[in-house]
Amino acid sequence: MRPAPVLCALTLTALVALTGCGGAPSGAAESLDQVPVPEWFTKPADRTDGDHVVRTYLNLPKGGAQVELGYAQALDRAGWRYGKAEPRCRSAAQAAGADGCWTAGELALAYRAGGNDSGEDSRGPSTLTVVIAAAA
Fold first, then answer.
1. Rounded to the nearest 10 degrees, how much is the dihedral formed by the CA atoms of 79, 82, 88, 91?
2. Which has the least CB within 10 A, 26, 60, 74, 121?
3. Which residue has the higher pLDDT, 35 or 99?
């Protein structure tokens, strides 16, 4: 007797859930919590988007370039390493709309800053969107 297709689908779903495959990388948000962001960063909001964890900082009081520089320095202090167009970065970089990404262990991270509808990105307020994924 062959198992019903529904039973097979449920079994596969349970295995994926138990092994962590097919979802956001485990420990991603915790890894982001270890990044010592500048004191002027606002409290972030996290969400899961498919295979990515997305962290968003809203209403940052500085322009986009200053926000990105501040976050890059924080990542460097936390031990993350930058790799421009590194193949294992592809997923995070594409999701964030970035050229390169940062890696730490099995995680890849990319980010992009933009204005909060202020019309003037150099002044702020700014939004920083950080995307973290398992390195491919």
1. 100
2. 26
3. 35
Q: Which residues contact 58 (CB under 8 A, 6 or more apart)?
A: 42, 45, 116, 125, 127
Which residues on neighbouring strands pair with residue 128, listed in sequence order? Answer: 57, 113
Is cis: bond before 3, omega within 30 of 0? no
- Tell me the backbone φ, ψ of residue 39, rounded to 5 degrees: -65, -25
Tokens of residue 103, six digits: 């890696």
Q: How confident is the model at residue 85 (pLDDT cuts 50, 70, 90)?
A: low
Chain centroid, CA 86 distance in Å: 16
Buried b or exposed e, range 72-84, using 16+ CB within 10 angstroms:
eebbeeeebeebe
